Amino acid sequence: MSDYIASALSRDEHFRIFAADATQTVREAQRRHDTWSASSAALGRTLVATALLAASGLKNADDMLTVRIKGDGPVGALVTDGTNVGTVRGYVEEPHVNLPLNLVGKIDVARAVGKRGLLAVTKDIGVGDPFTGQVPLVSGELAEDFTYYLAKSEQIPAAVGLSVFVNADNTIQVAGGFMLQALPGANDAELSELEANVKTLPLVSELLKSGLTPEQIIQRIAGDEPVQFLDAQPLKFACNCSKEHFGDIMATLPHAQLQEMIDQDGGAETTCKFCGNQYHYSVADLEALMPDTNSCS
Question: What is the CATH number of domain 4-237?
Fold first, then answer.
């Protein structure tokens, strides 16, 4: 089944709950960037969180949400983009990081990301300047960091769960996550009860491996409370890069630099950081990008 994000309201519309099966999405990211286990887990968790934040916080098809994480761990920077139409893309600065398991036998994401650094979320809704909220990392495990971001930067009491199960050959078995957000009108007792439910849940990866759907994960979070299911949004890894886009960037380079590419290299090649797609520019392509120095006005 294709990836998707389910959403629901619970507790007299006092809470929103989102849950995602992002297995194919994270598999595609792992394949494109050839990530090893620790890098896969860090990038995968960030992609899932980005998808959940975009689904909950963006309204229009052209809106964009960007997450930047820079800790002091070996994976370096993590950068992801998400839209409200269910597409995400992203990359990790150091894709080839594999670490010993942590004390509970899981991938040591906290060590991979680092516990000192920043998490920033930028929302570009096409009106005015993009807004960026930034918080320090609190654990490096990422779920706790995104929970802290929502509480401190957006003043939304929340609980976030993120999980990626990486096979021994570095492929992705399952990946997903959930996000519980309190809405105006929710009281502390209600939030505490749902948070208690969350703490009893197995990892999202274990729930997905056992065959649960995002809707069933939402019901597990809600406990005995009835929920009103809303939209189920498809989710996939997708990049909006193109040869034309990078060509427009290259066209801003000085004439001499483009001429050097023609004379010394016989062309040029560029690679998109987000998806790994490569674009080749022939001599004719580069000449077409150069300003017409023979024209006059």
Answer: 3.55.30.10
- Which DSSP state fits 121? E
Bridge pairing between strands 87-92 and 236-237: parallel
pLDDT tens digits, 13-33:
899 999 999 999 999 999 999
Cβ neighbours for 44, distance < 8 A, ≥ 6 positions apart: 22, 26, 29, 30, 164, 172, 175
The pTM of this model reads 0.93
DSSP type of residue 130: P
Q: Taking the CB of residue 167, how many other CB atoms lie within 10 A of it?
A: 11
CATH number of 243-289: 3.90.1280.10
Domain with CATH 3.90.1280.10 in the chain: 243-289
The set of residues, in sequence order, having a beta carbon less than 8 Å from that of 241 and lying 6+ positions away, is 272, 274, 275, 277
